[in-house]
Design brief:
Distance between the termini: 35 Å
Order of helices and strands: HHHH
Radius of gyration: 17 Å
Number of strands: 0
Mean pLDDT: 89
Number of domains: 1
Helix content: over 70%
Strand content: under 5%
């Protein structure tokens, strides 16, 4: 919940500096992309589910989750930068 508060506060701050109030700025779009990729440090929910289902190694998911979320963030940022230059 605390993250949500800081995210909304950041967007409100960026909106104050936005000259076109009905359009996202590049910074606002990048913020949304990075939050959507949601890089996971420790995927506790998945570990808990795997543990509750008696997985022999519930933490083995950590490395693939890191790789997937980092790749998603990189792909999102790269595509955003390409589209920002194009438009």
């Amino acid at each position: 919940m605390l993250q949500l508060h800081f995210g909304l506060k950041a967007m409100k701050t960026m909106q104050k500096e936005n000259p076109k109030k009905d359009t996202l700025t590049n910074s606002m779009a990048m913020f949304i992309i990075i939050n959507t990729a949601s890089i996971q440090i420790i995927p506790t929910t998945v570990i808990a589910i795997r543990s509750s289902l008696n997985s022999s190694n519930p933490t083995s998911i950590i490395m693939p989750v890191w790789i997937a979320t980092i790749c998603a963030a990189i792909a999102g940022v790269v595509m955003a930068k390409i589209l920002m230059k194009k438009y």
